[in-house]
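Good morning N.,

You mentioned wanting to compare the apo and holo forms, so I went ahead and generated the holo version with adenosine-5'-triphosphate. This is what I fed in:
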Amino acid sequence: MKDDGQRPTEARAPMPIVVEDVSFTYPSGTHALRGVSLRVSPGEAVAIVGENGAGKTTLVKHLNGLLKPGTGRVTIGDWDTREHTVAKMAARVGYVFQNPDDQIVERTVGDEVAFGPRRLGQPAAEQQANVAAALATVGLTEAAKTHPYDLTAPQRKLVTLASVLAMRTPIVIFDEPTMGQDARGVALIGDIVDRLKAEGRTVLTITHDIDFCAAHFGRAIVMADGQVLADGPAADVLTRADVLATTNVEPPQLVRLAQALRLKRAPLTVEEFVAEVVGSE
Ligand SMILES: Nc1ncnc2c1ncn2[C@@H]1O[C@H](COP(=O)(O)OP(=O)(O)OP(=O)(O)O)[C@@H](O)[C@H]1O
Ligand SMILES: [Mg+2]
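and this is what came out, ligand included:
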C-alpha cells in the first residue's frame, strides 16, 4: 500500500456530506437553521456565503458534530453525527473556527498544531511530519516555539489552519479564512485550498470575500435567515442579481464591472472577462 501518511480507513473511504432537512434553535430561542438540506460529494469545493447571522457557522458546526440537529439528520459518510463524539468526528471533518481564539488551547504554536494529530492517535513519526509540513505550508516553521498569543490575529488564524491541515482529514472546513489577512495571506490560503482540491479532499469555506470564492470554488451556497437561498455553480449563483440583492453579498468585482459595461455574460475570472471583451468588439 502506498504510504501517503493518511489513516487508510478514513482517508480513502468516500465521504459524502448529507444534510437532511436540518433545523436548529439555540437555547436563547434563535432559530438559526430552518430546514436546511444539501449534499456535498467527495472532492467538491463549496463556498458558503450570506449575510451576518444567516446561519453559516451554525451549519458547518453541524458537520463536525459540534452542534447536533434539533430535527433532521447530518451524515458524514456512514456516520450520523448524533451517534459520534466530536473527538471521533474530527477524524473525518477538520474545522477551522471563525475566531482562532475559540480554537487555540496550547502554549506554543508547535504544540497547538500537534494537538489534533495527537488526539487522532497519529503515530509519532507521522505526527511530526504532518506538523512540520503544516507549519511550513502556512509559513510559520520559525514560530514553532512561540506562544500563539505573541503572534498577530491573522497569524493565529494561520496557526489554526495548520492545526487542521496536520490532521489530514478527508473533509476540511474553513470559517472565514481570509478575514483580516493581507493580500499575501489571501493568496496563501487560496493556494492551500487549491492544493487540498488537487489532493481530492472536500473543501468547504464560509466567506464574505466573493472574489476569493469566485477564484477557488466551483459551487456556491447562499444562505439567508437560516435557509439555503441558492445552491449551484458559483458562476451562476454569484452572478444572479436577484439572489445577491436579498443578501448583503456584493457580486465579485469582475461581475460588477461586466454589468457596468453591459457585457452579455458575467465572467468570474480575468481570463473569461478578457475573452468576453475581446469577443464583443
Ligand atoms: N451561541 C449562540 N447562542 C445563541 N444564538 C446564537 C449563537 N451563535 C449564533 N447565534 C445566532 O444564530 C444566528 C445564526 O448565527 P451564525 O453564527 O450561524 O451566523 P453566520 O452566518 O455565521 O454569521 P456571521 O457572518 O456573522 O459569522 C444569529 O442570529 C446568531 O445571533
Ligand atoms: Mg459565522
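Residues 251-281 form one domain.

Happy to go through it together on a call whenever suits you.

Best,
F.
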